[in-house]
Amino acid sequence: MSGNELSKAASPYLLQHAHNPVHWRMWSQETLKAAQEQNKPILLSVGYAACHWCHVMAHESFEDPETAAVMNALFVNIKVDREERPDIDHIYMQSLQAFGERGGWPLTMFLTPQGEPFWGGTYFPKVEQYGRPAFVTVLRTVEDAFRKTPDRIATNTKAVRDGLSKAHTKEGGPLTMEQLNNLAPQMLNFVDQVDGGLRGAPKFPNTPIFEFLWRAGSRLGKSPYRDIVRHTLDRMSEGGIYDHLGGGFARYSTDERWLVPHFEKMLYDNAQLLELIALAWREFNDDLFKTRAYETVGWLAREMTGSEGGFCSAQDADSEGEEGKYYVWTWDELVSILGLEDTVFFGKFYNAARIGNWAEEKHGKMVTILNRLEIKARPTEEEEARLAPMRQKLFDVRDKRVHPGLDDKIMADWNGLMISSLVNAATIFNEPDWIKLAAKAYSFIVSTLHFTDGMGKKRLAHAWRDGVLVTPAMALDHAAMTRAALALHEVRHFPGLESILTRDYLADAIDWAEAMYSYHVDPETGLLAMAASDQSDVIMRLAPTSDDAIPNAHPVFLTALIRLAGLTGDDKWLKRADDLFTAVTPSVRTSFVGHSGILNAFDLRLRVKEIVTAGPKREPLYEAALASPFFERIVMDLDKPDELPDGHPAKAQADKAGDAAAFVCSGGACSLPVHDVAALEASLAG
After folding, report:
1. Which of 9, 102, 338, 575 reaches 20 to 30 Å from 118, CA-CA?
2. What's the number of CA atoms in the CB half-sphere (13 Å) around residue 433?
3. Is the CB of residue 535 less than 8 Å from the CB of residue 564?
């Protein structure tokens, strides 16, 4: 096997390595077979296009001819984009952690020719430093061990496989509301009361945990639960993790104050945060949250939307080989653009001074990351009127810089997350244009990300770029697109959008939910395997349940099943949701905090309000229903009361609808019909 085959790839991450002297191969059965024929171990390198340390290792080692020569002589070298193949990434990341190592990217794993992991790590420097051995030393040592100690290699691979495939326990009782309520004050203890977020550094958004606290506010009182969510969102929105010129949140902060981000921006982070910020604005009427929501959607539309409407995956942290270079400023740069007087004024609000606030990594020079963490009071209306054109000037200058790389592959799961987020936020802010943006992305997914399998069945694909599909879909693809379809179905009668939202979104949701049962539900455990049942190039099909930065398929699908039951009136979906809760509960009990997403879905299951609007003059009631908090309601809008499915709890009262009526149903019982917006809002508040 000679030569580098990554020029045939569509993934931006793989294409970044297409000119390496390393003889990279893509993951496939053919590559594994070739390794077996040569009896050579496999070096598996997993990363993603926006990964800073992936770039560092590439520049140091993979672009170096001498290092590449050792790699080519000793190993079959495989490069994987973790976003294209999250199933492979998860198998080997879990394997690394089974060896007692911390995870992260780049992921560097050593496998037998059969793909069984026997050792690994993350970033290895070219020369010995950071307490890590030189990469070439690692390569020679690992290959020597593979040749000379086959028994030890076999012991390692067996231990990992046994650990990853251990029997799924079904012990323990069901989840209860009492458990959720008891956990809420415990969860508060993990939160940084000064800077928000979870204690310590680095700091990630951890949106499922803060959604859990938000939901606790519904059950246990706004203070302290919703107040601490507000404080966290405030600190993030004022911090350097937020792009104060272009909008959008970076992936995480390297410090405890949200000042210094890891500068890449990911679609999935911004999807989750947009929903939480919309809820916070509705609750607190804080203009900061409205501004950040609008700026983030502006960034999405301007920089992350492909020509045909699909949403791109990520923006890189690096430009011109330096992390954050695109985003940071020197004092002299600011003065040259704004003038000294305006720079001093601007600096009072955005923590910009001659000394800077961050020593950038490559050269150690002091630069400024724009943030508002130090301000004692937000700008007045007059001050904001002066600041806005300054931000625009800086944005225009920055826009002429070399931009960070854009990972423009379109993924079904991340698009599904953003589609439903846009729709939900649009109902809070009454922004039909956001629904149009979501609907266009949805249309691209359904028209482009599909394939016909060997059995002649039309199926969802996982990713697309430049005409190339990655197939088949993963569990999260089906879960997120089911939820996206249901969100669009709920708003299909949104004023002014009826001519645009003409697709049968409910039928799509049913199809994707059924596909989940065809390809992903493990018949033994009842859990959702990441990889499809006919994905033949993985050594095992894992079904993780805990939260990660990218949402887990289980909570996303559970919320979709609950909503599908409400919107169809078919209890089959609720039964399936309950069965899935039963399957995941033993895992949840091992770490309640680590399964906050599932706990949020369980809260929805117990407390969801189904709002049925009916009658020819129901539009004001329908709009009021949509404007209620999306995280705890389902809206079924009917032209005629007799369209209610048989068995729906509102069926018995439907003939009382008249010209316009709404029913609020919860726990299998419905309110009396209400006929005006004030009465509906009072019913929802009760």
Report:
1. 9
2. 5
3. no
| This prediction's pTM | 0.96
Classified as helix, coil or strand, 266 is: strand
Residue with tokens 């492909």: 306
Strands 633-637, 609-614: parallel, antiparallel or unpaired by DSSP?
parallel
Band of the pLDDT at 164, cuts 50, 70, 90? confident
Kind of pairing between the strands at 24-26 and 76-81: parallel
- Nearest Cα neighbor of 76 from 112, 118, 42, 36 is 42
- CA–CA separation, 419 vs 479, rounded Å? 13
Inter-CA distances, 396 with 392, 393, 406, 500, Å? 6, 5, 19, 34
Tell me the chain's radius of gyration from C-alpha atoms: 26
pLDDT tens digits for range 342-386: 999 999 999 999 999 999 767 678 999 999 999 999 999 999 999
Give the other-Cβ count within 10 Å of 454's Cβ.
Answer: 6
Confidence of residue 1 (pLDDT cuts 50, 70, 90): low
DSSP of 93-160, one letter per residue? HHHHHHTT----SSEEEEE-TTS-EEEEES---SSSBTTB--HHHHHHHHHHHHHH-HHHHHHHHHHH
Q: Tokens 């604005």 label which residue?
A: 281
In the chain, DSSP finds a helix count (H) and a strand count (E) of 24, 22
Task: Decide if 224 contacts 163 (C-beta within 8 A).
Answer: no
Nearest Cα to 77, choosing from 3, 25, 136, 11? 25
Find the helix packing angle between 267-284 and 412-429, rounded to 10°: 20
Q: Nearest CA to 204 among 283, 322, 104, 312?
A: 104
Amino acid identity for residue 627 in this structure:
A
